[in-house]
Design a protein that fits this description.
CATH architecture of the largest domain: 3-Layer(aba) Sandwich
Helix content: 25-40%
Largest sheet: 14 strands, mixed
Number of helices: 13
Radius of gyration: 21 Å
Structural class: alpha+beta
Order of helices and strands: EEHHEEHEEHEHEHHEHHEEEHHEHEH
Number of strands: 14
Distance between the termini: 45 Å
CATH class of the largest domain: Alpha Beta
Oligomer: single chain
CATH topology of the largest domain: Aminopeptidase
CATH superfamily of the largest domain: Gcn5-related N-acetyltransferase (GNAT)
Shape: globular
Length: about 375
């Protein structure tokens, strides 16, 4: 455990840890719990999965910062990771497809070592700031100082503060510290009270979305058999993993590195994960054609983290839309008031009732070339708006 005391900032102290195990579970969850997959148990899973991952593309170092005043009150709490990113992660799909052709022979092409808030497996509010405290600005500055110190110590190529809402209180301060602001993909969140029956659910939707629900979702539900499982056997896991790879190799909206089988096998060892399996009943063999890998956070937030699909049946049977709706049904059965639907496909998620939230990130880069790449990517992004 490391402590830093900055007397210039009136005794505000920053505490750094390298594992969530070093932070009391109740303390972390009281502040950061219910967010995506980074409640205390979720971070145990993430550390177990990525901290010593055999694949160096998915091997991350974790760090945690807690800033307190001299009475021990928490002013800032966050976690982050140090690992490899693809520089085109937020680029348009056409850019990423071209770069992936190059990476077939040069896997490290346009990749960077990145210090980031959060990790590539999570999205959402990675940094808690007690904005009502009189020393909140000093606390944020202290956090930025420590992040920059770490950035320099590990000689990272980029430092990224992720997933801030567009209108946030710290925009000016962060940019004055030398960060470049970029747009991120929109975040999709579904929030609802408990509903009973499809008619009640449809009343929560807009008129246009209600028509979509009645025409594109309800009529297709009969073609599927749904199973919810807490763990998968080896055969089920292999089939589910292949469906994940189908999506990963077809969708470059968020271009991250491919996850290996260990990421999914570790879900079997964590009680908070469950698997939604969708079998197509129109086929004699009733094949597994869709899967959602879902995390249950403290009876509050349901997170369909990863998806797998058989594209052979996707269009004819509206598979993706059915996966979205079955996820909403499952969260409702569990009495979870929130679903973190993640990023990408925001148009489809909005049609089933999700709120779409614009997000930004703040970046420092070691060299001008990386900044030029990021500027090019942003121009690509803006051209789509």
């Amino acid at each position: 455990m490391k402590y830093y005391l900055n007397s210039i900032q009136n005794g505000i102290m920053i505490e750094e840890k390298s594992t969530i195990q070093g932070i009391e579970k109740s303390v972390w969850n009281d502040v950061m719990g219910k967010n995506n997959i980074f409640d205390w148990d979720g971070l145990v899973y993430l550390e177990n999965t990525f901290k010593n991952n055999a694949n160096h593309f998915n091997k991350w170092e974790f760090f945690y910062y807690i800033v307190k005043d001299n009475y021990g009150k928490i002013l800032v709490m966050t976690f982050g990771t140090f690992g490899l990113w693809k520089d085109d992660m937020l680029a348009t799909e056409s850019v990423s497809r071209q770069l992936e052709e190059i990476r077939k022979t040069n896997p490290m092409h346009l990749t960077s070592k990145v210090i980031s808030l959060g990790c590539l497996f999570t999205e959402g509010k990675h940094c808690f700031i007690n904005e009502e405290h009189e020393s909140s600005e000093k606390a944020v500055k202290l956090l930025l100082d420590k992040l920059e110190e770490k950035y320099n110590n590990v000689k990272a190529d980029m430092l990224v503060l992720r997933d801030f809402e567009v209108k946030n209180s710290w925009d000016k301060l962060i940019q004055e510290q030398g960060y470049f602001k970029i747009n991120m993909p929109e975040s999709c969140v579904f929030k609802a009270e408990k509903w009973e029956g499809y008619e009640e659910f449809s009343k929560m939707l807009s008129t246009r979305s209600r028509k979509h629900f009645n025409k594109e979702i309800i009529p297709f539900e009969k073609y599927y058999k749904i199973e919810i499982k807490n763990s998968l056997d080896s055969d089920e896991m292999e089939k589910a993993y292949q469906l994940y790879l189908n999506v990963k190799n077809n969708n470059f909206a968020i271009n991250t590195f491919e996850y290996d089988m260990s990421v999914f096998e570790n879900m079997n060892e964590c009680a908070n994960w469950e698997f939604m399996l969708m079998y197509l009943t129109t086929e004699t063999a009733k094949p597994l054609v869709g899967v959602m890998f879902c995390y249950k956070n403290q009876n509050h937030t349901y997170v369909p983290e990863l998806i797998g699909m058989d594209y052979k049946f996707a269009k004819e049977f509206n598979l993706y839309r059915q996966l979205l709706f079955q996820t909403i049904k499952r969260a409702n059965e569990l009495n979870f008031p929130q679903i973190d639907f993640g990023v990408s496909a925001s148009f489809e998620k909005r049609k089933v009732g999700a709120n779409v939230i614009p997000k930004v990130a703040y970046i420092q880069a070691r060299d001008n070339f990386t900044m030029e790449v990021m500027n090019t990517i942003q121009n690509d992004y803006k051209s789509l708006l």
